[in-house]
Design a protein that fits this description.
Oligomer: heterodimer
Distance between the termini of chain B: 24 Å
Structural class of chain B: mainly alpha
Helix content of chain A: over 70%
Structural class of chain A: mainly alpha
Number of strands of chain B: 0
Distance between the termini of chain A: 35 Å
Number of strands of chain A: 0
Radius of gyration of chain A: 21 Å
Number of domains of chain A: 1
């Protein structure tokens, strides 16, 4: 199958170089649409007022944070099973991007919580709390990678950690949720879920897509850098760098 | 296979009994952490009573954490682990024995001293059996999850702090169910649900964690 071709770092490097501009342009367009629609076109919510616009950033960021952890664990597992370098490199490149989305989700969540719940942080909200633990899992993953010098060992150790984390993440989430139902939450104004109107759905979806394309673009840039640093003694890298230095 | 399992436990217990410090230090740490809380939050009986389950459980988590870094280190340094990889017995069984030994040497003493600390925190006497029961179900999970972190960080620089960063987030469900069960039993709520979930956790780590640990050891010894 043609996909095997791109498991070789050299081919992947070229493919990524072609894809990065594509995803970058898509990101800019989708972000422009999403932000414009979200900030100017969509109406303020009848209950939450203008604050609801935070959701156009918060919700896609939260989705992305969990999605990226899943991608990281899956590609780590794929790397363990099929011993492909590229899968591990992809996982390594995903971690910082996932961390940033987690931080964005936490900050926007707490900014939204301040006017809506009257508090910056609400422990009984399972989503907020498990997002915090997701951040810790990302930190652990990157710290483990950073402290192992041999890249092959770092790849495999980090992959095992990510797989353990993905098993534990739902358990953490549901344990916080059950914990909170047992603690009889101090009347946090739970907002009902009216069916979402298209004026809000379009900016939400386009922001979500923009975050996805941003993720792909930045992961591919990072993956390209990792490939170059790991393969620096291979001939194709030397040739590539020579061509860069003196373009004929 | 079973003989190897028992031998590893016997060996670890013997070594620990000859170096009692290894068992005592986490216990003293447990006692000190618990003693620090009343000094920090104030000596009010009612306040201490409400936060006692949380304090005891967090302290138990930290005390286990303290002993986890050492779990495989000596065996790693003197080459025992490499022999394990070559041994005819499956690595998973040997790992299981190692963790059982770790639990006997840290989890069990923790459970045994917990009543004294509970009394210090004004926990009602009637709640002490429940405290010991939740610790009995919870500490094996702590040993298993900790072993994953310990195996992943073998021979890594700064592994002591790193292990806590890797493992403490994984401990949250145990803390939640352990402490909630205790609180529920004090206020008279049903506790069976929490205990079942803790028991389910034990079964889960017992069956899945040894594979992850064995995998991690293979990576670390590669």
């Amino acid at each position: 199958m043609f996909i095997y071709k791109y498991a070789a770092p050299r081919n992947f490097y070229r493919l990524a170089g072609f894809l990065v501009p594509v995803f970058a342009v898509l990101t800019v367009v989708l972000l422009a649409v999403g932000l414009y629609m979200g900030f100017f076109v969509s109406p303020p919510d009848y209950e939450q007022g203008e604050t609801v616009r935070i959701m156009f950033i918060h919700v896609p960021a939260a989705w992305m944070s969990m999605f990226i952890y899943a991608v990281m664990a899956t590609s780590g597992a794929a790397g363990l099973i099929w011993k492909t370098k590229i899968a591990h490199i992809f996982a390594a490149a995903s971690a910082p991007v996932g961390t940033v989305f987690t931080v964005i989700a936490l900050i926007t969540g707490s900014l939204w919580g301040a006017p809506m719940w009257g508090t910056w942080w609400e422990w009984t909200d399972a989503r907020l709390t498990s997002e915090l633990f997701l951040l810790f899992l990302f930190f652990g993953y990157m710290a483990l990678r950073a402290s192992i010098d041999d890249p092959r060992r770092a790849d495999r150790a980090a992959a095992i950690l990510a797989v353990v984390g993905i098993v534990d993440l739902p358990i953490i989430h549901f344990s916080v949720e059950w914990w909170n139902t047992l603690h009889q939450p101090a009347s946090v104004g739970k907002i009902g879920r009216p069916s979402i109107h298209s004026s809000m759905l379009i900016p939400l979806l386009s922001m979500a897509l923009a975050f996805n394309t941003y993720f792909l673009a930045s992961v591919l840039i990072r993956a390209r850098t990792i490939i170059l640093t790991r393969e620096y003694n291979k001939r194709w890298v030397t040739e590539l760098l020579n061509r860069r230095r003196n373009p004929s | 296979m079973f003989a190897a399992f028992l031998n590893i436990i016997k060996r670890d217990v013997t070594i620990a009994l000859r170096r009692r410090g290894d068992i005592l230090v986490p216990l003293m740490f447990f006692a000190i952490v618990v003693a620090l809380f009343p000094l920090g939050v104030g000596p009010e009986t009612t306040l201490l009573k409400t936060i006692a389950p949380g304090i005891l459980w967090v302290a138990a988590l930290l005390a286990t954490m303290l002993s986890i870094g050492r779990m495989f280190r000596d065996d790693y340094q003197d080459g025992t682990l490499e022999q394990w990889l070559l041994a005819p017995q499956p690595l998973v069984v040997l790992v299981l024995a190692k963790i059982c030994a770790h639990w006997i040497l840290t989890g069990l003493p923790l459970i045994l001293v917990s009543p004294i600390l509970a009394i210090q925190l004004h926990l009602p006497l009637s709640a002490i059996p429940m405290l010991m029961l939740t610790l009995l179900l919870g500490t094996p999970i702590l040993s298993f999850l900790g072993a994953i972190g310990s195996a992943l960080t073998l021979g890594v620089r700064g592994s002591g702090v790193l292990v806590s960063l890797l493992v403490l987030p994984l401990y949250t469900p145990v803390l939640i169910f352990g402490a909630s069960a205790l609180t529920a039993s004090i206020v008279g709520d049903p506790v069976a649900g929490h205990l079942y979930l803790l028991a389910a956790g034990v079964v889960m780590v017992l069956t899945l964690a040894p594979w992850a640990i064995a995998g991690a050891l293979r990576v670390s010894l590669d």
